[in-house]
Amino acid sequence: MEELTKLVELLENKGKSTTAAFLNYADSSSLETRLYQLIKDNAVESEPELIQNLYGDFTKANAFKMLKTRVKKKLYNQLLFLDLSGFEISFGSNSAELECRHYLQLANMFRVTGETALARIQLQKAMVLAEEVQLIDCQIEAYKALRAILTIHGFNRREYEECISKLAELYTLAEYEKRADELFHNIKFEYKLGANAGNSLINTLKDVTDELKASWHKTNLYTVFRRYHQLMNFYFELNGDFAAYIDYLNQTFDDYRAGKIHKAYFSESFTKYLLVYAYLKNGDYALGIQEAEQLKKKLPEGSKNWFAHLENYFLLAVHAQKFELAEKILLEAFNNKHFKENNQFAQERWTIFYQVYQSAYGFSIPVKLRKKLIVVQQDKKGFNLWCVILDFMTALDNRHTNLIASEAERMKKYIARYLTAKEDARSKYMLKLLVVAGREFPIDAASCRKKSEYLFSKLQEAPVPGYAYAETEIIPYEDLWEIILQKLDASK
Questions:
Q1: Among the listed ranges 29-38, 261-270, 335-344, 408-417, which one has the minimum average pLDDT value?
Q2: Which of 68, 120, 173, 465 has its CA 20 to 30 A from that of 438?
Q3: Which 3 state secondary structure label does DSSP give 227?
Q4: Half-sphere exposure of 158 (CA within 13 A, CB side)
């Protein structure tokens, strides 16, 4: 009762203006509420229309400007009470930090208004939450505020010394956290500049992840683990050792189940997504399909994460030659009511998946595809490569000799321009095989197979590059070559 009484007194004496801090949704006669509702309902398309609707006069631009300012101020106030439960937040620690900072803001407000008892209540809430989720910065801010209170009120030496001791401990941990953040952002910057940093970046990553792993084990800080985990994902994306990646991801699950990693810093579904992808890249199709089916049931159907996971699931089915499953997944994706909510790149990827699969295996569904692919054409080592392959397959199906020769010449130029790095070896040899088939057309499969033996052996020997260098093959190149040979025989 005492806390409630103090709150009422504080608002009565110093908070009367807060009654106008929020929109009154119930007052439909208010211009502020009407403006909010018009925008919410998409009832108008332009500012002049809004002015006319609200005032009945286009000349009220200045009044409308002041109205907008008031409404924006009130909406920003209401954002402080936003319910984050419906948002896809990458880490639970982010929402915990927002909650913690809300407590700290209240504590500081109470402290400056002289309500130290109320301030301590909010500080205690912040401390409990921040300690549970290991929010070091929030803990430091809370204990600094407590120290300020203790030097003015109470003068409890034992409590003050405990506060000082805790701050010293937190400052030490903050240095480890600061170091982890610094290493992470430096590496991420280099990584985003492009994967062509190659072995130099891989070696740097190895040294940095070793340091962060040691720091994590020494401090047991979840924040240090998070940076270590993120950089380990970068490391395996670059070096392409997917067998080791599978072992690493399974180990993180073991650590999580053992309580070494807080749920706020670990996403089970995202880690499963990475595991499914690693199984795909490592050729462990049976295990990958098993994990993919389980994960699919846990993701909200039609969500962006669901569609992203479905891509890997589809590729697993194709690589495992589970064609009935692959076709089922294609139907699920295109027939989902949320398909059009995907961004353009995602929709274009599904278009390429379907077109390549249709050309290779003759599967068709009544679906409206994107007529022009724009985003994928920028991905020269990935999906645009499949556009080039698809054009050649289409020319082969149509038995158009001149067009086949033209596509073969186009692929020669494509190899010279875009597939020059050692990580491009598989794609380079695949296109070279197609060039042989195009140059020799019309030719039977047996003759083409003989002429291309050397190139095919080089394709088989070439290692699968890491994710950072190239997209996953929609159809394994070895299988694709057999399909091309079948098309050659069919064209005779």
A1: 29-38
A2: 465
A3: helix
A4: 0
Query: Is the distance from CB of 167 to CB of 140 less than 8 angstroms?
Result: yes
* Mean residue pLDDT across the chain: 88
- DSSP 8-state class, residue 81: T
Q: What is the pLDDT of residues 431-460, one digit of tens each?
A: 999 999 998 888 788 889 999 999 999 999
Whole-number Å distance between alpha carbons of 217 and 18: 48
Torsion of CA 1, 108, 75, 25, to 10 degrees: 10
- In three-state secondary structure terms, 259 is coil
Which of 292, 266, 265 has the alpha carbon at shortest distance from 278?
A: 292
Question: Cα separation of 474 and 456, whole Å?
Answer: 18
For residue 198 the two structure tokens come to: 């190659």
Higher-confidence residue: 292 or 1?
292
Q: What number of other Cβ atoms are within 10 A of residue 96's Cβ?
A: 21
Question: Is 81 in contact with 66 (CB distance < 8 Å)?
Answer: no
CB 209, CB 191: distance < 8 Å: no
- DSSP class of residue 59 equals T
**How confident is the model over 263-278, as a mean pLDDT?**
94
Q: CA–CA separation, 433 vs 445, rounded Å? A: 12
For the residues 118-135, what does the mean pLDDT come to? 95
Burial class (CB in 10 A: 0-12, 13-18, 19+), 420: exposed
CA distance 207 to 235: 11
SS3 of 21-44: CCCCCCCCCCHHHHHHHHHHCCCC
DSSP per residue, 123-167? HHHHHHHHHHHT-HHHHHHHHHHHHHHHTTTT--HHHHHHHHHHH
According to the model, what pLDDT value does residue 89 have?
A: 47
Per the CB < 8 A criterion, the answer to whether 191 and 201 are in contact is yes
Residue entry with tokens 């920003």: 76
pLDDT, tens digit, 9 for 90 and up, residues 349-391: 999 999 999 999 999 888 777 777 888 787 777 888 999 999 9
> What span, in angstroms and rounded, lies between the C-alpha atoms of 145 and 75?
29
Q: Which amino acid is at 384?
A: N
Residue 290: enclosing H or E segment and its boundaries?
helix 285-298
Region of residue 149 (phi > 0: left; psi between -120 and 50: alpha; otherwise: beta)? alpha
Is-contact 264 129, C-beta < 8 A?
no
Question: Given a cut of 80, is residue 206 above it in pLDDT?
Answer: yes
Radius of gyration of the chain (CA): 30
| Cα dihedral value 245, 246, 247, 250, nearest 10 | 120
| 396-418 as b/e: b if 16+ CB within 10 A | beeeeeebbeebbebbbebbeeb
98-114: per-residue pLDDT in tens? Answer: 899 999 999 998 998 88
Dist. CA 411–CA 391, nearest whole Å: 10
